[in-house]
Design brief:
Elements lengths: L2 H7 L5 H16 L20 H24 L4 H20 L8 H29 L7
Helix pairs in contact: 2-3, 3-4, 4-5
The structure holds fe (ii) ion.
Fe (ii) ion (FE2) binds next to helix 4 and helix 5.
């Protein structure tokens, strides 16, 4: 199951979390298109640092910072474990970059890494965070 489907199953009810999921789904649906965020189109492929992987990492780090801020605002008790799980996908993508994976050529591999992480993380980490944020009134109920 691609994580686009998981957005429907694991929506948190917290707009700032769900917006991050929707943004990631949007990016994942377009980032693998030929030429999008690819250094090859200008003849300067970043073989040492795939631009598509960099774009994914930038987007994820932005989302993770927003979630971390939410957790900090309310004193979320599972903050460290949640943030550790964010680090896992960042490290996996950085490892692909270090291995000179091209996300245009190896799109299936990159998609699998992100999808597998997202499916698990949305359910195991983001959904409980959303429930906690609503019940603790850290954010207003949707
Ligand atoms: Fe998260």
């Amino acid at each position: 199951m691609a994580f686009g489907r998981a957005l429907l199953d694991f929506g948190t009810g917290v707009r700032e979390i769900d917006a991050g999921h929707e943004g990631l789904a949007f990016l994942m649906a377009r980032i693998f298109e030929p030429g999008v965020e690819c250094g090859r189109k200008s003849g300067a492929c970043g073989e040492h640092s795939c631009n598509k992987l960099s774009a994914l990492l930038t987007f994820l780090r932005h989302n993770f910072a927003a979630e971390s801020d939410l957790m900090e605002r309310g004193g979320y008790p599972n903050r460290d474990a949640h943030c550790d799980d964010h680090v896992k996908v960042v490290e996996d993508l950085k490892a692909l970059q270090a291995s000179r994976v091209c996300a245009e050529r190896d799109r299936v591999l990159v998609r699998q890494v992100v999808d597998r992480w997202a499916l698990r993380h949305f359910q195991a980490c983001d959904h409980p965070l959303g429930r906690w944020a609503v019940t603790r009134r850290v954010v207003p109920a949707a």
